[in-house]
Amino acid sequence: MSKSFLIACENGNRKIAELLLQQEVKDVNYTNEKGRTALHYAAHKGYLEICQNLVDRGANLDYEDHQGETPLYFATLQNQTPVIKYLLQKGAKTSITDKVGNNLLHLATRNGQKPLCELFLESGLDLESQNNQGDTPLMLAILSLKKMLVDFFIEKGANVFVKSKAGNNLLHLALGSGNLPIIKTLLENGIPVDEPDSKSVTPLQYACYNNNVMLVRLFLEKGANIFLNTPSGLSPIYYVCAHNQKQLVQLFLENGLDVNFQTPSQGAVTVGSYLDFVEAAQDISTDRLFNLSSSYTSGGESLLHIATKNGHLYMVELLLKNGANVNIQDESENTALHYAASCGKKDIVSLLIENGANVSLSNAREQKPLDYANIKGYNEIAALLLGESHSSDSLPKSDSISQKPAQIVTETKTESLSKEEIRAKLKDLKELFEDELISEKEYNQKKSELLSHL
């Protein structure tokens, strides 16, 4: 009879359970193969009268199943408030946690149940309790997008400066969902707007990278520093300019950006040149452009390099019209033409050549733009470059412009090469990969082919 009664509760057969309960149930703490009693299932289903009857007959309030979960835990999973109140009144323990360390307050938070959160706090659960991941109820409210609970926990005095195990603050957690109301609440409660996350990215940099205009506007209103750099030297200015995010550039200008500001890095691109560059492309104020050719990033790239690498044809044209040096070289001695040829930007290659780009200039690896076009298999670009060649120095180092990348890096008969020649090929192959001129897949494939002949 005890087993039949438990099965009726487990399957939600309330009427049958009530009928069986009126008869003799020998063991109210009878368990199934999962270690659960009838009280577990009655609490889970919200059968208050059955729960009361079981408790009156001696059911164990705090009986733990094989997962360590009690009837009160089961009731909380399903937000069974009347049953929860009854079990608490009868003295059920609130210290229970699940296998990942969530207590009853964590569960109620995840389910968005403010009344239950209030009830558990009144029952003595800690507002700052953490699960195995280090999450507090306030953190879970943020991650679960429960704005009402975020407000509630803060009103109750929750620590807004707590950090996750990874070192991220509450604002960083909220950025993942982009929930503007929650982010506003956190900022209003004193969370620093410029504090970087565990990867050294500030909230403003994150918003700029994702082109989130509303968040950028909010962070600027809260005093975010647009000049803060990541360890790689990339500021929000870089993101909005290099990725052609014109609306964000306009927003920076509206917020009083000083176009003559220069970043602390030696030789870095001036903010003025970046912004005038993009601003002019929007036809905001073309007469504010100044000597663009003298501005560099910390990696030695000019604005012309950046515009070319990002495929911004109009930007390249604008720079050239306003005096940018078409043959300016970066720290690796690459010109814009090197990058255009390598990236397959035929229209930019044509524009650069029309404006006097020197097709014969070699970079630090002694590679010309034509070499890169050959390596990547961009035959139309190679033909353009050959048409502008005026000396044998501009000819490709391999036999034909139609030659494929695999033929350039490894000869057809690799087995005929000496060990020294193979090592030299491996070195050249590595340089091509480091210059991002071949993919990782190509690199690994050709490397394996060469190594097989050593």
UniProtKB/TrEMBL annotation:
PROSITE patterns: ANK_REP_REGION (PS50297), ANK_REPEAT (PS50088)
Gene3D superfamilies in UniProt: Ankyrin repeat-containing domain
Family matches, as Pfam families: Ank_2
SUPFAM superfamilies: Ankyrin repeat
Repeat keyword on record: yes
Chain positions of ANK repeats: 34-66, 67-99, 100-132, 133-165, 166-198, 199-231, 232-264, 299-331, 332-364
Keywords: ANK repeat, Repeat
InterPro entries assigned: Ankyrin_rpt (IPR002110), Ankyrin_rpt-contain_sf (IPR036770)
Protein name, as recorded: Ankyrin repeat protein
Organism expressing this protein natively: Mongoliibacter ruber
Lineage, opening ranks: Bacteria, Pseudomonadati, Bacteroidota, Cytophagia, Cytophagales
